[in-house]
Design brief:
The chain is mainly alpha-helical. It folds into three domains: 16-111, no CATH class; 133-215, DNA polymerase, domain 1; 225-375, Intergrase catalytic core (hpI Integrase, Chain A). Helices cover 46% and strands 6% of the residues. The chain is built from 15 helices and six strands. It has helices spanning 55-67, 74-85, 89-111, 116-128, 138-150, 164-173, 178-195, 225-233, 238-247, 295-300, 304-318, 325-338, 343-350, 358-363, 368-375; strands at 16-19, 28-31, 50-52, 260-262, 267-270, 280-283. The radius of gyration is 28 Å and the shape is elongated.
Length: 386
Amino acid sequence: MPKRKKYPRLHNSFGSIRYLGRNRANPYAVHPPATERDQSGRYLRPTALCYVPDWYTGFAVLTAYHAGTYRPGMEFEIQQEVVQSMTDLDAFCRRVISDYSSVAQVDSRADHGPTFADVYQQYYDWKYGESAAKKLSQSSVRCTTAAFKRLSVLHDREMTSITLDELQAVVNSDQGSQASIELMITLIKQMYRYAIPRHLCAEDVGRYIQLPAMQGDEHGVPFSDEELCTIWQRRSDATAQALLIMCYSGFRVSAYKTIEVNLDEMYFRGGVKTKSSKDRIVPIHSGIADMVPGPGLDLLRMSQSAIRNRMDAFLEQAGIERHTPHDCRHTFSRLCEKYEVREADRKRMLGHSFGQDITNSIYGHRTAEELRAEIEKIKFVGNCDH
């Protein structure tokens, strides 16, 4: 079967011509520009103006629609005229689209610029639409959609009028998890990178937005020695193993999806979020060596919602007060302090910045074995049966 002809791509606000399939007298549906959105922010397809036998007649209908001359039934009059009067229909269509895009852009700037939601729609179509450079996962689509919904206060704002302070305030006021806030920041930055070269806004203020300090490492409740003892007693459970791996390695929960596990030299390599966090080495503590690899690490490579659900159920069943996955990172830091791991090495293994400490940040180099000597200072806690 021969491939169906590809037609010139229509401007987002020009409307759409949708092919409905073979064996129809009028297989093309002609839709005016979309104006209403669903809950995810995507435009809803409006009712068709008409149904026509070929794409070019549909294009002529949309051209008349924008000129204000279209009337129901007009498609029958113009069908033959379109075919007979144009010797190079593709060139004509491209010229009309180009002219329309220029006029639309000028009119938009004279009246008002595209809103945050307008830019999102174009960005979404560019990244996930049929003509996207590559096919992305449904997980990526869901994350992007969820992040956009959390930014609803910005949807009707003109992109150019939004200030950095306003963006930061929206992110700072969000009550979601650190992961959801990071997704919001990622979406904002990607939208601005998309918008700037396309003249949809004037300044890339998104590049300066920061992860709120309240979501950082200074907040959290580490597991107590008694709670760790209870978890150790249940170490045959996959969730217990996941908790112990996090408590004895110190990575953020999102890092375990892509973390490298070197079983020859017994260390983790990876990290997320900051320059000092990424690609760092943390030796695998001897206490969790028999858990890596294993069902606990497999669990840590699941979605964060799945990890949280499993963790909440396990802690409730074990009689331990609720903790977040990030509390495991605080537990690792507490254990390092308790067993007098060198402060500089604690920072290295947690991926903390050395700030103005030039000696450690530039000249402080430690091998995996030197770090192993420090992490092995951490002993098993309580009177657990190991």
